[in-house]
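To whoever is on call:

I kicked off a structure prediction for a single chain this morning and the downstream step that reads the tokens threw a length-mismatch warning. I double-checked the sequence; it's 456 residues and nothing unusual in it as far as I can see. Pasting both halves so you can look.
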Amino acid sequence: MSESVISIRDLGKCYRNRHQTLGDLWALRHVNLEIGQGEIWGIIGRNGAGKSTLLKLLARVTRQSEGNFTIKGRVYSILELGMGFHAELSGLDNLYVAGALQGLTRREIRRLMESIVDFSGLGEAVYQPLRTYSSGMRVRLAFALAAHTSPDILILDEILAVGDEQFQRKCFEVIRAFIERGVTVLFVSHDMKLISLICNHCILLHNGEILDRGDTNTVIESYSQIMGPSISTNKLTLTHAAHYMQLFHGRFRITHRFGLYTSVRANRIWYDPAYILWEDESFQQDRMVLHGHYITLPLSMTWEFTFRNDITLQWDVFLHADTSLHIDRFQVNVMLNTAFNSWGAGGITGKFPERFESAIGEDWSRRWIGSPDSVISAFVDHTRFCGRVDYSTSNTSGVLAVVSSNPEFKAHLLQYLKTWPENEMIKMDDKPIFRSTITLVEMKPEMKTGPHDLHS
């Protein structure tokens, strides 16, 4: 690790409540972190998780209630609504004041002023009082000054959430230039794509404490676990994220991208859950039910998830047609984390390919296809989970398959597929059209000798 420039020890911030009936609010607590020179840290979490509070403490805008931190080097921070500027001063005067706080002389600021104003794009508005500015205009002013200073540490709070696309692009180019110069960056954003693109380290804050830290993409996966309503056991957590379901074993994400999802094909067009308007959701401790209608099909779908024990999830799917409807294909998919590297089914074993085939289309590569009475499995050896996923169905028709997608999706799947003849209308009743179980089996690394240990 490079030399530490920010060292945080048991940092906390408490807001005292004047009403004795209500307890004090800890916005941040027990935060410990070492940040090396030149490292780019993303800070993510839900609203109210403590992200902005942490940055305000490090920028010395507010004081901590407990713990301490040390910072080596010059800090430039851009916090919410251009915090640190004076509302009654003009944009121009604020640049002189803020520039002086950054160690720039008045002569230096005057020499840079034309370039700073041009970068901000504020034009004549720079002569107006700051109280007349929108939040986006304030961030423009603050970032334009930052682009013309030489900080050792840059602290940014959602600065790319405002402004037009052209200004955001300019900001991104400046951030990249700072990174190339070895500036240490702390970056708060709700844009996970941007966090993944910029940051090489990440922390996840939840209820004021660090829930996860480390590799950016791994922490982003942990973030998705807490984003939607969920049910859980001691081992597994199932989360409803947008149109899809994500399954976790502890802090390891079993699924990837679309996670657990169904697809139907009618009139040669595939419809995935993005076409479903989810209308009813119910959550119990170990059971989740989702019901919705397809936007462009006279068809409704119900998903029922039930934890049968700590490691087994049962998934029932119901279809209900409003009118006569022909569906020629129906799929239930478990899209796996890319850390899974091997599979086993029907006594056959294999490795998932490291590269995805170049063919583009709906006919993804099937590694194995067989009876619905089979059990198909995928194996992973990861620091957070070592073991396998077993996928089985109680359906008497259809097939099970092990599938690799095309390069566009970059995923491996355990899949159930059912087809109907072209002249047959599907029959709807109160019984599930599909029932499956997904079981997670932990294995010690030394015991995992290969897919042939399928059901030992």
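Update from on-call: the warning came from a stale cache, not from the record. Cleared it. Sanity check on the structure: The CA atoms of residues 36 and 450 lie 39 Å apart.
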